[in-house]
Amino acid sequence: MIKVEVDMTKCQHYGQCVFEAPDIFRLNADDKLEYTAEADDSERANIEAAVDVCPMQAIRIVE
Amino acid sequence: MNHPVVIVGASMGGLRTAESLRRFGYLGPITVIGEETHKPYNRPPLSKEVLANEVTHEAVAFEERDATADVNWVLGTRAVSADFEHNIVTDSDGQVHPYAALVISTGLRSRRLNVPNGELTGRHALRTLEDAIALRAELVQGKNVVIVGGGFIGCEVAATAVKLGCNVTVVHNAAHPMLRPLGSELAEQMQLRHEAMGVTFKLKRTVTDLLGVSHVEGVKLDDETVLHCDVLIEAIGSHANVEWLSGNEIDRNDGILVDSAMRVMQRSGHAVSNVFAIGDVARFANPIFDQEARRVEHWNIPTETAKRAASVIAAYLNKSDAYPAILDEPFKPVPSFWSDQYDNHLLAFGLLGLADKATLVAGDISGDCVFEYSRGDQLVGVCGIGMRSVVQSYRAKFI
């Protein structure tokens, strides 16, 4: 399992992560980010991509 | 000893290349040469929140990961030449760096006004952290600020300067700010929103001269209008940093032409197997749109091209059996960017600039809205103000 952490004080809901890992991150009807904090290992590449493209550098994988 | 992978350009793209090389199983040495004295940092906040608050490297630096702890950073040094035949890069200190593979990530530099009275102080551009620090010090309440160039950077800086209490005029050479990417309807709407916040636009105008003796005091436009200013910001685009590659038989007319593996193309039509270009400087074809090679200055492109190059380099240097298959993998990243101007949060995918038609598909033009951008029957982009979940729903149409 992979643990995902988003610093919601940094997150500006740009949604770049949603594009990279749509099964983990999503924007709700109010355009606010929601995410699944625990993911299957098969999602690792997508989550790493989301970490990389986050404009606010707000996403971390907790090892 | 094996020669390192040498990455020229200590930017986000350079950093992502180094990280991705490790991710793809390359364990050998990596050297990153960078002209700026800082390790890689995040540029988008420079025109937005960083410009509005305190600017430090710490605030924008990328987190360093364990995987790249052993990277050899050669900073404050510019690469001055590369010799693809002998596999060496020479830097401005005269040091020679032999390489096993070379990654060109030298990006762009700000284009500056070319005017007669150009030797004045007080002229600003915004690309580097030093640029932001210098500009931040001048954006004080009550100052008259002229911004030349109404593209995304110019408009973001305008919004920030207005928030800081400056009097802002934007000189732009087209009928509306951000016209080329956004199309006339959305561009005009964004203009109205800037005007409502107090920005003045001088449209279809160019700057022909500067006023002032030692410090800039104003600009003269092509209709002889004079705008007095305390601060002049030039946001008129950029040049690709490719001059240092002269002497190699490559196509460096507007960036560096690369193939779908990010390998630099020689004029002969053959790719150089161990020289790559990524990020803003790479000109590549994206089969999502067509076969024409373009430079793409969108947020995710440095990261996407870095990963693509790193996967090829790792397979090449590790002599992997998968190398031919990796070379043949299609490369079709979906360009994406965003922009914040006041409370207007723009989010876009695709290449809006290719479109011949923009159509409102959701929301209301005076509020939050989404536009589809098409070229003939082909959807080439989507852009929204707000309504980000609707914009996101277009993802599937591009993949």
List keywords for this structure.
heterodimer; A: 63 residues; Alpha-Beta Plaits; three-stranded antiparallel sheet; two-stranded antiparallel ribbon; 2 helices; 5 strands; 27% strand; B: 399 residues; alpha/beta; FAD/NAD(P)-binding domain; 3 domains; six-stranded mixed sheet; 11 helices; 27 strands; globular
The number of distinct structural domains of chain B comes to 3
**Total beta strands of chain B:** 27
| SS summary, helix count of chain A | 2
Q: Give unreliable regions of chain B as ranges.
A: none
Helix content of chain B: 10-25%
Strand order of the largest sheet of chain B: 3-2-1-7-20-19
Strand order of the largest sheet of chain A: 4-1-5
Question: Could you give the distance between the termini of chain A?
Answer: 9 Å
Identify the CATH class of chain A: Alpha Beta
Rg of chain B, nearest Å = 22 Å
The overall pLDDT of chain A, averaged over residues, is: 93
pLDDT averaged over residues of chain B: 95
Indicate the low-confidence ranges of chain A by residue numbers: none
Account of the 3D structure:
The complex is a heterodimer of chains A (63) and B (399). Chain A is of the alpha+beta class. Chain A has one domain (2-62): Alpha-Beta Plaits, CATH 3.30.70.20. Chain A is built from 2 helices and 5 strands. Chain A has a 3-stranded antiparallel beta sheet with strand order 4-1-5, with helices on one face. A two-stranded antiparallel ribbon of chain A has the order 2-3. In chain A, a hairpin with a 5-residue loop joins strand 2 (25-27) and strand 3. The longest helix of chain A is centred in the last third of the chain and has 10 residues, at 44-53. The model of chain A has no long low-confidence stretch (mean pLDDT 93). In chain B, the strands form 7 sheets. In chain B, strands 3-2-1-7-20-19 form a 6-stranded mixed beta sheet, covered by helices on one side. In chain B, strands 9-16-10-11-12 form a 5-stranded parallel beta sheet, covered by helices on one side. A 5-stranded antiparallel beta sheet of chain B has the order 23-24-27-26-25. By secondary structure, chain B is an alpha/beta fold. The two termini of chain B are 42 Å apart. The longest helix of chain B has 17 residues, at 301-317. Chain B has helices spanning 12-23, 49-52, 57-60, 129-138, 152-163, 179-182, 184-196, 301-317, 323-328, 388-392, 395-398, and strands at residues 5-8, 30-34, 72-75, 79-83, 88-91, 96-98, 101-104, 108-110, 123-124, 144-148, 167-172, 200-203, 207-211, 218-221, 226-228, 231-234, 238-240, 256-257, 263-265, 271-277, 282-285, 293-295, 336-341, 344-350, 357-363, 369-375, 378-385. In chain B, a hairpin with a 2-residue loop joins strand 23 (336-341) and strand 24 (344-350). Chain B has 11 helices and 27 strands. The mean pLDDT of chain B is 95. Chain B has 3 domains: 5-109 and 239-328, FAD/NAD(P)-binding domain (3-Layer(bba) Sandwich); 112-236, FAD/NAD(P)-binding domain (3-Layer(bba) Sandwich), CATH 3.50.50; 343-398, Enolase-like, domain 1 (2-Layer Sandwich). Classes of the chains: A alpha+beta (63), B alpha/beta (399). Chain A binds chain B through residues 12-16, 18-19, 22, 26-29, 31, 48-49, 52-53, 55, 57, and chain B through 16, 19, 23, 42, 44-45, 62-63, 299-300, 303, 307, 334, 336, 338, 340, 345, 347, 349, 386-389, 391-392, 395.
